[in-house]
Amino acid sequence: MPALPQPRPTSLPDGRTTAAARRLLAPNPSPMTLDGTNTWLLGAPADDGSPRPAIVVDPGPALEEHLDAITAAARIELVLITHRHRDHTEAIDALVERTGAPVRALLPEHSRDGAPLRDGERIEAAGVAVEVVATPGHTSDSVSFWLPDEGVLLSGDTVLGGSTTVIDHPDGTLGDYLATLDALERLGRERPTGILPGHGGEIADLAAETARLREHRMRRLEQVRAALDRLGRDAPVEAIVDDVYADAPARVRTWAAHSLAAQLAYLRG
Q1: Alpha helices, DSSP H only, in 137-247?
Q2: How confident is the model over 24-61, as pLDDT tens digits?
Q3: Are 209 and 215 spatial neighbours (Cβ–Cβ below 8 Å)?
Q4: Phi and psi at residue 38, to the nearest 5°
Q5: Cβ(134)–Cβ(118) below 8 Å
Q6: CA distance linking residue 200 with residue 164, whole number of Å
Q7: What is the residue extent of each domain of the chain?
Q8: DSSP 251
Q9: 71: closest CA among 98, 39, 108, 35?
Q10: How far apart are CA 63 and CA 68, in angstroms?
């Protein structure tokens, strides 16, 4: 029987580390999930070598290998969900069946034996403190989890490592996403904070990354405005996608159309 994947310690690009957050990469790579979904295990290290208690953030896909790795790595006390998408939530019920741990999400339909999350709420479990930060935009229910003692933010799909997120319009909106980026940039400027994303690798500087993402979104809006000037205000969405996202692989064009719809809605007010 092959050995189970082991959770990887967190190491930020600037050399900072935290023993309170470990990553298990789900084996579900795709154009949208990048290398796969990051399942995060949060918890203070156990001194005696016994399985340490942990909070699971985003159990990910319902794949037996991934579930085995999660349950072998820690004693699960609590499960937290960053947002509703299936690549983050599919394993909820299978993990509850194995562990009996309560699950908390912003949406009641993703919660199990636990109250829905509240923006600004402080959660203490498995020896760590976690603060809930509402970060809508990618989806309306997106939240991030800030570990103030560790100086890291678990961003779900609000900020990705090595890519930009999709605005899942009409549920997600560009206006919400830009407001979220502004709020996260302020948080990062008040206190240096690293990012532990839902997909991709760790990012060192929350303030710098969110400023970069905002600049990228504003450039895209200018490209959309220019495309509308060239193609006409009534141009079909497909034609605008081909113009604005000419460099995007065909396999992600459907999701590019979601983001374009969000941009058009934003421009039209």
Answers
A1: 174-190, 206-231, 237-244
A2: 999 999 989 999 999 999 998 766 556 789 999 999 99
A3: no
A4: -85, 120
A5: no
A6: 10
A7: 8-207
A8: G
A9: 98
A10: 9
